[in-house]
């Protein structure tokens, strides 16, 4: 149920005895909600002359906006890149299961696939609001096939493509209609990429740079054409070099359009990026860091062989490889583990870690008015960060319906860090 | 009993606590209910912050409810958006109303963005009258001795109206507007001296050395419109609550007199009781 005049009569909920993430800080403030949106209580008091209808004592919990995952390939056995007849129910299953990781909105991601797959699957993944049933679908993230052969990583070589011949027409011919797409990852060194980037951006689709051997100049040109994201920084791109920093150099480039900065995805599962590299990126450009899972269908399944796109993967503990090789192909760490790991590895404060998984992805997608924050007017999608007591609190959405709760890591140190000093 | 009292506490925190306890006792003693609301006049600024914090504490402890209390604030800037962080609406919400159980319909603050400002002032006076007058008006004092925004030269029988702020006041307020004088509002709606004098009881909070000279002018010199707080020398029931620093410009004789008569008299609770019983 969305806001506006119609919600004026709806019940006002007041969450008290909590700390809320707002404006980059954890404030000792009550959170007021009405009609699924965060409410300005001062306005309510002076203009409508109303008080809360219901008070909820949060027992000292932290309330934070739901996490947003902009790169997730599937999970729990579901592979978004499989051309199934009923893709929708697979998406629904993942949407429901990732709630327990604190993810309340996501971008189902398709890896490099043949055109038939895109044209069958894309129409079945419409944008969909979230709720107690599952995380919301914000749009599809298409990672490939317009990527570098050399840096394809786990993507199948046979299905790589270029748009050299007809630029954007080639893009449309490959994917079909782009209605449900919110982001495309491509390699900017491919011929005619600036035109393609401009055409995608003009349609409101975010362009991300990744799986590429581009140098810094090509990357900057891509950003000037409209690219705003880097797909899993450090992975599948040229390593940082002090005379040509490559795509990594975008973090500190002085050639970006004024007032703009680059966002960059980080898989902080402890495997894809060395903590020292994570810290370098974070310290160079903290405002752009976006935590992503890049989770594969094996997420939540355990050790063994599973399918990803057109290939087989092997899961061993917290690591997933292309079967028979040592090439990493995505992570199986849930988002809450990524947040905790990022917190630990970067030494940043809890507010920054939470923002990297909520506010920054929302800003990347241009949704920060309603998502990724607890500002007045935002969608009231709230995570409870439980207090370290045996009583655990369920994550509630604005209507107060229980969803599977977000459990803190069993490690006492991490639990303490998460719940803060009070 | 109709004497002016001067209560001197050692420091700001003790003065704030004393004042808050007094207000609390007054309300509780009054036994407010559905047909009998306690009407309270309220100030803003840095001086009463400690007092508000204490009142909130008493409320959170379950000792004090504002369910049957009506409040009337002294003033509000003209032309500042209601949700501006420096508006008095914002001040009252953040420092008081959001922490207590007052009914929003009973929290009255002048609207500095009203279409007809004088009509807004007249309506405010009417609301006070309809509420049965103010039982206890709590106020502060400016460095220039003003009460509310009744700047030097204001009529001592004035009512709620639009006022242009004195330069002293604008300078004093600049700290709330990033030190930029051009950002400070130049006009305000304010209750008049007469409006506050109509209250059955008045409590003025004065803390800090920078207010000492104004306090001296207010109680050791004559009643005059250049130091409008001096009007309260003629109010039947006024208490000045101060810290030591605020008494720095007073004569030792004055301070000794009030300290002796004060301590001889009563503690806060007893003071309340005594006053209360003398009325009934």
From TrEMBL, chain A:
Amidohydrolase-related domain mapped to chain residues: 62-383
One matching Pfam family: Amidohydro_1
Signal sequence annotation: none
Pathway: Amino-sugar metabolism; N-acetylneuraminate degradation
Group of enzyme by EC: hydrolase
Catalysed conversion reaction: N-acetyl-D-glucosamine 6-phosphate + H2O = D-glucosamine 6-phosphate + acetate
Keywords: Carbohydrate metabolism, Hydrolase, Metal-binding
InterPro entries with a match to the protein in the record: Amidohydro-rel, GlcNAc_6-P_deAcase, Metal-dep_hydrolase_composite, Metal_Hydrolase
EC number: 3.5.1.25
Family statement: Belongs to the metallo-dependent hydrolases superfamily. NagA family.
Protein's job: Hydrolyzes the N-glycolyl group from N-glycolylglucosamine 6-phosphate (GlcNGc-6-P) in the N-glycolylneuraminic acid (Neu5Gc) degradation pathway.
Protein name: N-acetylglucosamine-6-phosphate deacetylase
UniProtKB/TrEMBL annotation, chain B:
Catalytic activity entry: alpha-D-glucosamine 6-phosphate + H2O = beta-D-fructose 6-phosphate + NH4(+)
Listed PROSITE patterns: GLC_GALNAC_ISOMERASE
Pfam families: Glucosamine_iso
Annotated EC: 3.5.99.6
Keyword Nucleotidyltransferase: no
Entry GO MF terms: isomerase activity
Transmembrane segments: none
Intracellular or extracellular location(s): Cytoplasm
Keywords: Carbohydrate metabolism, Coiled coil, Cytoplasm, Hydrolase, Isomerase
Domain of life of the native organism: Eukaryota
Broad enzyme group: hydrolase
Location, primary (coarse class): cytoplasm
Domain Glucosamine/galactosamine-6-phosphate isomerase: 18-237
Pathway: Nucleotide-sugar biosynthesis; UDP-N-acetyl-alpha-D-glucosamine biosynthesis; alpha-D-glucosamine 6-phosphate from D-fructose 6-phosphate: step 1/1
Membership in a protein family: Belongs to the glucosamine/galactosamine-6-phosphate isomerase family.
Subunit structure as annotated in this protein's UniProt entry: Homohexamer.
HAMAP family hit by this protein: GlcN6P_deamin
Name of the protein described by the UniProt record: Glucosamine-6-phosphate isomerase
Protein source organism: Erinaceus europaeus
Gene name of the encoded protein: GNPDA2
